[in-house]
Amino acid sequence: MRHRTTRHPLPSGLLRVRPGRAEDASAVEALVESVILEDRWFLTTPEEWLPSAARRARELEDLLHAPASLALVATRRGAILGFAQARAGALRRSAHESHLDVYVAASARGAGIGRTLLTELARRARERPTMHRIALAVFADNVRARALYESIGFVEEGRRRGAGRERDGSLRDEILMAMDVGGQR
């Protein structure tokens, strides 16, 4: 049950969502890098990005077996178009909360891939008694992403004013959001 593939018919074609595996590491790393290189959606800048398929393979393997974490890939005709990971906190007091990162290929945005990936991730998280909350941070000006997160069930819990400094010196706020997915209290 943990390692199943689900099929989702979208107007743009059949999308498969399945757990990320070590053999996906190179493709996932390329997708993540392409989003980081856009230099807009994450605190990490392209200069700070240190790609490593070997590290990603270890992480995917770890997440595949972690009781309070998930890593999913969205594929169409074998190509990975989306990746989402919810990684549980490393400390005992934060192990019930998983932090979410989502990446969708620029060429595939707006086709329902992010929504499908997040809906499936939330559904699978609800099946795990050890997952209670999924939290994320998103730039306040990323209106599309915020709307997507809210439509899935995430609620705003706070704001980090000036959390990101752009190359021109301007500051961007980060919105903190979370969603309860059940689990043990």
Description:
The chain is an alpha+beta fold. It has a single domain, classed as 3-Layer(aba) Sandwich (Aminopeptidase), CATH 3.40.630. It has helices at residues 25-37, 53-65, 113-126, 143-152; strands at 6-10, 13-19, 70-76, 79-88, 97-104, 133-139, 155-165, 171-180. An eight-stranded mixed beta sheet has the order 1-2-3-4-5-6-8-7, sandwiched between helices. A hairpin with a 2-residue loop joins strand 1 and strand 2 (13-19). Helix 1 crosses helix 2 (53-65). It is globular. The two termini are 24 Å apart. The mean pLDDT is 91.
Q: Report, as a whole number of angstroms, the end-to-end distance.
A: 24 Å
CATH-assigned fold name = Aminopeptidase
Number of helices: 4
Query: Shape, please?
Result: globular
* SSE ordering: EEHHEEEHEHEE
CATH architecture descriptor: 3-Layer(aba) Sandwich
Whole-number total of structural domains: 1
- Give the uncertain stretches in residue-range form: none
Derived structural class: alpha+beta
What is the overall pLDDT average?
A: 91
Strand content: 35-45%
Largest sheet, in brief, is: 8 strands, mixed
Helix content: 25-40%
